Amino acid sequence: MAGAVRDRAAMIRGMAPVRRAGAYVFCTVPRAQAAAAADAAIATFAEDEGLSVILPRERAEALGQDAALPMACITLSVHSALDGVGLTAAVAGALADAGIPCNMVAAFHHDHAFVPEARAEEALSLLKALAATSS
Prior knowledge:
Radius of gyration: 16 Å
Largest sheet: 6 strands, antiparallel
Strand order of the largest sheet: 2-3-1-4-6-5
Number of strands: 6
Distance between the termini: 24 Å
Structural class: alpha+beta
Helix content: 25-40%
Number of helices: 5
């Protein structure tokens, strides 16, 4: 496996965006639900207000969370370096220019763009075009 990519243009060119199956909900769960939510979460972050989680929509609904804004997850397949500069800005900027809300989540190997489920295919097409035209 190749190492992490740091070069901005190479990260954008190689991002190879792929939509992850399903719909996801961002929510904060009370401490009493933290363990049950964390088991099903694809991501968690401890905030002062509680445990923020990204849950599959069905699990969020089962926990009584508001699932009114389901999000699609688009994974940028490039192994972006944690100290790489510019990938998040390029992706968020391209989506913002199209009026598509975006919540970026960086993990160790990949970055993930969460966009409203209803605009997922449009977002995916825009990101593929961005990668294809990056110099």
